[in-house]
Amino acid sequence: MQNSAVTRRQMTERRRDTLDRLVTERDVWVSTAHPDHGPHQVPLWFAWDGRAVWMCTSATSVTARNVRKEPRVRLALPDSFDVVLLQGEAASFPDQDVPRDAADAFADKFGWDPRTEDGPFLYVRVVPKIVRAWRGEAELRGRVIMRDGTWLE
Q1: Which of 16, 29, 52, 64 is 20 to 30 A off residue 71, Cα-Cα?
Q2: Model's pTM, two decimal places?
Q3: Residue 145, C-beta contacts closer than 8 angstroms, at least 6 positions apart
Q4: Averaged pLDDT score across all residues of the chain
């Protein structure tokens, strides 16, 4: 169990810690929904390019189907104490149309290049509109660190 005595971080420290995690973390939980089939949640590998989260999934996956129908998504880094939640709209790129720098960065990070695989893959880019970050109850107030795509001070 985590120690509940957490020192409240200032906004700039929360932003720095969040950006550090976006660069170093491997997995993100992706929540999507389909108008007819409801919610779906799955972990995916991701790469952060300094502005957006890039993920890749089979072009026939439920996630791919959902983001094509309903691009609003929520993302969560996998830690229930050091919480980072992102919200935005997904843009989809078939593996043959993905920007080279994004696909190369993804391949470099994971040592796996979906563009070389059999079967189609879909790259999904999410530019966050809202980011929430907190560690424990002490940081619940003021947990929004990005609003309308702008980092708060």
Answers
A1: 16
A2: 0.94
A3: 11, 14, 15, 18, 131, 132, 133, 151, 152
A4: 95
